[in-house]
Design goal:
Layout (H helix, E strand, L loop, with lengths): L9 H4 L16 H7 L3 E3 L7 H9 L4 E3 L11 H6 L13 E2 L2 H9 L3 E3 L3 H15 L3 E12 L14 H4 L4 E2 L8 H12 L6 E6 L6 E9 L5 H11 L6 E3 L17 E8 L4 E8 L3 H15 L16
Parallel strand pairs: 1-2, 2-4, 3-4, 5-7, 9-10
Antiparallel strand pairs: 5-8, 6-7, 8-11, 10-11
Helix pairs in contact: 5-10, 6-8
């Protein structure tokens, strides 16, 4: 559905689907949506999604929401991080955070999925094994994050104008990026305590991709082989997690257009830090691909269905 393109062919606005999809955009009708669909994906901006999602739920729909409106469990965090009160806080406890590698069982039974943000997906997957094992000194954690420009969406803004972005590399929203509480919330659930970490995002002059470099001190002395064993056990059987052993390191080009998250790590004996690397496509595993992965789980379909793509390398 679309408020601006109703009655026009989808392929007119997404030409890559020419000859593949003959659907047209339609205006949104709540009752028609509930009657004709098994699951509804809601891709409205943050702050506008809840007004549609709540009536859909009340009408009996299952919803996968790609906004941040249902990701945080504490309603009191929304004024601080999103500059508004949450309109429907009573739905927050019900929403399941849609990171399949951590919440698969809850997702399968849910009617409201809060699809994770792109930075949180890459960050949480990077540190989840360490958090679950309660090995992290949270005061030491620094997440150095880089993203392509598409993470800002399609709206025209001066900061994302081509002459402003190209041949440039900059940090932004320091130290109050809105994804920080989401990352801390989910890692805290794993760790059994509320972490407080440093997160600095950067804008890279490329279209898509996220690379996270996480710096961590441990509460227990481990060797690098010990750490690899921990990660291999934690992510055993996960279709979209690829662990890259030395000398390989994640690169955004290897996950572009895919639903994979590539992870690797190193133990720096000189500084006593573990360095964890995580790469995803912010538009796929960081957004729509993960939403489809969640849909597959809810519908009891093969989790990889429609998502087994490889990066289009030269």
């Amino acid at each position: 559905t679309s408020t601006t393109h109703a009655g026009r062919a989808v392929a007119d606005f997404h030409p890559q689907f020419t000859g593949l999809i003959d659907a047209e955009f339609s205006t949104f009708d709540l009752h028609e949506a509930v009657e004709k669909t098994d699951i509804i994906f809601c891709a409205l901006p943050h702050g506008k999604s809840a007004a549609i999602v709540v009536p859909l739920l009340e009408a009996g729909a299952k919803v996968i929401d790609l906004s941040a409106d249902f990701r945080l469990k504490e309603a009191g965090l929304y004024p601080q991080w999103y500059n508004q009160e949450h309109p429907s806080p009573h739905f927050l406890p019900e929403a399941v955070y849609g990171l399949p590698e951590l919440k698969r069982e809850q997702i399968s039974k849910a009617r409201l999925i809060a699809n994770p943000g792109c930075y949180p997906t890459a960050s949480i997957l990077a540190l989840a094994p360490l958090a679950k094992a309660k090995l992290v000194d949270w005061k030491s954690v620094v997440l150095d994050a880089k993203s392509g420009v598409s993470g800002a969406g399609r709206s025209l803004k001066q900061a994302f104008h081509f002459p402003e972005c190209t041949e440039n590399f900059k940090a932004y929203k320091v130290p109050n990026h809105q994804h920080i509480p989401e990352i801390e919330q989910e890692l805290g659930i794993l760790a059994g305590s509320r972490p407080c970490l440093s997160f600095t995002p950067h804008l890279v002059p490329m279209v898509r991709g996220i690379l996270i470099t996480a710096y961590v001190r441990l509460t227990k002395e481990l060797t690098e082989p010990d750490l690899w064993e921990l990660y291999e056990h934690f992510y055993e059987g996960e279709s979209f997690i690829r662990l890259l052993k030395p000398p390989r390191l994640p690169e955004t080009r290897f996950v572009m257009g895919t639903n994979f998250c590539d992870l690797s790590l190193r133990y720096d004996q000189r500084t006593g830090r573990v360095i964890v690397f995580s790469a995803i496509d912010n538009l796929v595993k960081g957004a729509s691909g993960q939403a489809v992965q969640n849909m597959n789980i809810i519908c009891n379909l093969p989790e990889e269905q429609g998502l087994k793509h490889v990066a289009p390398l030269p």
